[in-house]
Amino acid sequence: MKISIPYFFTSIAFLTVTLLAFASCGTSKEVTCIDESKISDGPCTMEYNPVCGCDGTTYSNPCAADRAGITSWTQGKCE
């Protein structure tokens, strides 16, 4: 059986799109920056030790970020 060139490329394109669709299923993990269950108005020190929250906001210290429900941050001010 002889396969025509256009059919061959169409088949390859379809196979590639199908494989990419299956490969991406279930792999996207939405990273949640704010955990609403951790939001509180509990006490924190007044210490100024700035952290940059994953939401792009600078918090005065890690405790303030925790209190805002921020799940991750880096040391220092946000740029």
Automatic annotation (TrEMBL):
Kazal-like domain residues: 27-79
Keywords carried by this UniProt record: Signal
Database matches in InterPro entries: Kazal_dom, Kazal_dom_sf
CDD domains attached to this UniProt entry: KAZAL_FS
Pfam families per record: Kazal_1 (PF00050)
Record carries keyword Lipid biosynthesis: no
Keyword match Lipid metabolism: no
UniProt signal peptide: 1-23
Protein name in UniProt: Kazal-like domain-containing protein
Species of origin: Aequorivita vladivostokensis
